[in-house]
Amino acid sequence: MNQKIRGYAQILKKDQFHLVTVNGHSYYIFRYQGKINGFKTVTILISYPKNAFHNNKTLKAFITTDISLCDEEIFQRYNCRWTIETFFRQNKMELNLDKYQIRSSRAIKRYLIITQLAYLYCISGICDNYTSFSKGLKIARNNSKKTLISWICDKSQEGFTKQEICSLLKVA
């Protein structure tokens, strides 16, 4: 295969695909097995949701070097991997952890523990029901701001000056 997947998928006919159901969702799948760009033999799955065949916006391609896997196994593995990818993307974007560069196994373990605790807190510890990470993070940030405002008001009522409060907050 020496062309872009999107272009290749467009020339394929519907009868070259087969229907696969994974986690209650059905997809049209085309399986290519062979060498690509000098790599060893790979399996590439080209897929469309059942109700959106040849819709470029819904096209997904999956590649694996484990050619022994059946189509359903490849889909299930990518489904699990997608959850992990989403978790790390949210850590980078929402928690601003994209600048960290850690190399030791101890630091990596600490990073994972902290991010998992933050994630768990945002989806379950912030309100009575489970919520999405983004909503939970927004609630947590708003609660943090409210707590800070309350603390500032309390210090003001205790007679602290604006300069003393700024000093306590280390913003002076």
UniProtKB/TrEMBL annotation:
It comes from the Bacteria. InterPro entries: RNaseH-like_sf, Transposase_11. One of its GO terms (biological process) is DNA transposition. One of its GO terms (molecular function) is DNA binding. It holds the Pfam family DDE_Tnp_1. Residues 71-120 form the Transposase IS4-like domain. This is Transposase DDE domain protein. It comes from Clostridium tepidiprofundi DSM 19306.
